[in-house]
Every structure is written in structure tokens, then in C-alpha cells.
Amino acid sequence: MQELHDAPLAPLTTFRLGGPADRLVTATSDDEVIAAVREADDSGTPLLLIGGGSNLVVGDKGFAGTALVVATRGFTLDGTLLELAAGEVWSDAVARTVEAGLAGVECLAGIPGSAGATPIQNVGAYGQEVSSTITEVVAYDRTTRERVTLTNEQCAFSYRHSRFKADPERYVVLRVRYRLEDAGGLSAPLKYAETARALGVEPGDRVPLDAARDTVLKLRAGKGMVLDPEDHDTWSAGSFFTNPILTDTAFAAFHARVRERLGDGVLPPAYPAGEGHTKTSAAWLIDKAGFAKGYGTGPARISTKHTLALTNRGAATTEDLLALAREVVAGVHEAFGVTLVNEPVTVGVSL
Question: Which residues are catalytic?
């Protein structure tokens, strides 16, 4: 294992923000990951796990403890069964499944980060979620101090949530297993209207795998959601807020606020989210509350390509970013009575 002290964390995050860690350890095998976790637990040292750093907001003061970079590698394909080590680069793994002619994660192309993060927040985009393909997650249980294998059902997946996110101090993901589909080189049925429209087909249709992947990459790039060191719109964590899921009562109150503010003819986005619940669009809320693309005058601003991404324009601090996030949250709540929730994990700070 590699070990550094007083090590900068900003270069390990897509925001490029945050102060140093007291100690930075890089583990390249499951055994090294477990050893580092056990050492921290035995000594009572705070532990921060880092994969691709695409979902982290680290405070300017840094992290007083051990930051563990999970840099394990492993891509194993057996028929339609895929196993990934937690440290595998997710976007690269998706590309390899498409090359192998297997469907199920092609619309998750271009999402930054590591494979080990995918089950934690049930990564999803363009009509696909990893919960529909994950069969098992191998993890280290910090409570029992054993390796465990959790089934899909035991992972308790829901929208951008899981057992791992609900109890973040307990499990360290080591490996993720997926069951993909051999559809003769075709994608899974397209569920997202924007993707189908861009491909000139109807929702529910299948298209060649590489066409689906390439289209998603183009759509993501147009919104600044594909990492590019030269493009400050990608110095972000992607979508900074989750789409709110409201009870029927709360949605009715929200709809009334929309009519009052924007007029009777304006209908907010509404998607079924389980019995008695409706999901609406965080991006729509932000825009209609007066926060347009490119909003802000300081070093942290809303992306010029997508209202849901908060960005570091190159010289921001974490406090700059949080000030902007708080302004957006307060503005949306004042306008519509809906409280946005941040999607990235905050370290040493909070909204």
C-alpha cells in the first residue's frame, strides 16, 4: 500500500476542491482495503473512502483522519455475468460490456467514478439504474469484521439510495456482480424519451448497443456531464441535487405554488414514484426559481450547460460552492415550498 501524509484531496475529486487528509492510503487489492479499514477501526481513526471522487464535496479544512483510495482492478465476464472490482473505472467497464455485445448498462455510459460506488447510490441515468442488473455485492462488514455477500434484495435499492447509503459507516464495497443481457447486439428497451427521440425511435424500442452508448455520451457531453479537464462545466459532481419525490399531498401543494407563481397553464414535471408519491424535476425547479444556466458571479457557478450541475470555475473554494448551493436551496424552497437534497456526499461540511 502507498501511504502519504498531509496529502491534497482536491486532485482526487471531480470538483477539484477540498483540503488535505492527515493520511492518504492507496490500496490495490481487496486484502489491502480490508487491512487499511481494520487498522483505522482498531485505532479509532476517522476513515474516508475514495473511489473516483465524482460524488465528494470535501471541506476546505480537509479530512482529519485516513483517506483510503480504493484502486483495485478486476473485470471478469462469464457469459452474461460480470464481476467488477470496486476500483474499476465505471465508464471504461461500460465500454467493455458494449464491445462484448451485452446490454443493461449502456445508457450509464460516461458516468464518472468507480464501480464500487454504483450500488451505494443506485447509480442511474437515461432510463437505467444499476439495481436492475446487480445480482450481488461483496463487501467488508465493519461491524462483524467479515466479508459478506449481499443479494440484490438485501441491498434495499430505491431511487439514488441503498442499504450502503443508509448505513455508510458499516460496509466497504469490494466487488459488484451484474447480470447483463445478450440481445444480439441490441440495447435494452429504451425507457428515456430524450434518448429515444435522439435516436429517432420510440420508447421501448431497441437499437444497436454502440448507437445507444454513443447517443448517451453525446447527450451527456452537451450538458457538461462527461469529464473534460479543459471544460469547467465538468468540474462538478454531475447532478448536485436529487429529483424530489413528493407525497400526493405535498405535490398538490407544490402544484398550487406553481400555478400561483407561473400561471394556470404551467404544469410541473410529474413522474410516478410508487403508490402515493410523485417525482418532479430538480432542474426544472432550479430554473423556474430564477437560477438559469451560468448563474453566479463568483468562482462557483451553475453550469452553462445544465442547471442541475454546480461547478468550480477554476478558483473556487468549497465554501464558495456551498454558498451557491445554499442560495439555490433557499430560492427553490421560497418559490415552491420544496426542499432540494444534495446528491454528493459532504465531508466535514454540510448545506
Answer: 160, 239, 343
